[in-house]
Each structure stands twice: as structure tokens, then as C-alpha cells.
Amino acid sequence: RVVGLGPYQVTDQTATRLDLLDPQGEKHPLTFTLVKDPTVRLLKLLNHEIDLLQDDIPLELLAYGQQQGLKALS
């Protein structure tokens, strides 16, 4: 087991993606995906392709996302 992953185990890993699975099946699998372009990250969030967005978003895109009903936490 990798230190810092708690009960999760790595099931797949590439340069842009990390898939984790709880061995007891009590939690849903987690997938972390690297998306470098901030516009694409925001559009994926608005299209429900991702559930969480982390990293910098230009103020214009942040304002647009908030107009679409998204909330930003800092």
C-alpha cells in the first residue's frame, strides 16, 4: 500500500490519471485526472464530467462558472 492513501489501493496509473479503489468496497472508486487547460477543466465541471476542480482558474472563467451556478472555495 502507498503511504498516504488510507484504505485505497492504486488500480491504474498513467501520466495523467490515477485510479484508486477501496479494497473493502465500502467507498466509491476515485479517479484523479490531470487536465492542464483551465477552460477545459471548467467545461468538464459544467458538463458533469468531473466532480471537483482544483488549480487556478482565470477570473473571467471563474465569473462565468459562478453565473452557471458553481461555487468557488479558497
Q: Would you identify the regions where 5 or more consecutive residues have pLDDT less than 50?
A: none
Give the fraction of residues assigned to helices: 10-25%
Distance between the termini: 31 Å
Count of individual beta strands: 3
Sheet having the most strands: 3 strands, antiparallel
Instruction: Strand order, main sheet: write it out.
Output: 1-2-3
Q: What percent strand?
A: 15-25%
- Average pLDDT number: 88
Q: Identify the overall geometry.
A: elongated
Order of helices and strands: EEEHH
Structural class: alpha+beta
Q: How large is the count of helical segments?
A: 2
Task: Write up what this structure looks like.
The protein is α+β, with helices and mostly antiparallel strands and 74 residues long. 24% of the residues lie in helices and 19% in strands. It has 2 helices and 3 strands, in the order E-E-E-H-H. The protein has helices at 38-46, 59-67; strands spanning 9-13, 17-21, 30-33. A 3-stranded antiparallel sheet has the order 1-2-3, with no helix packed on it. A hairpin with an 8-residue loop joins strand 2 and strand 3 (30-33). The longest helix is centred in the middle third of the chain and has 9 residues, at 38-46. It is elongated and about 40 Å long. The termini are far apart. The model has no long low-confidence stretch (mean pLDDT 88).
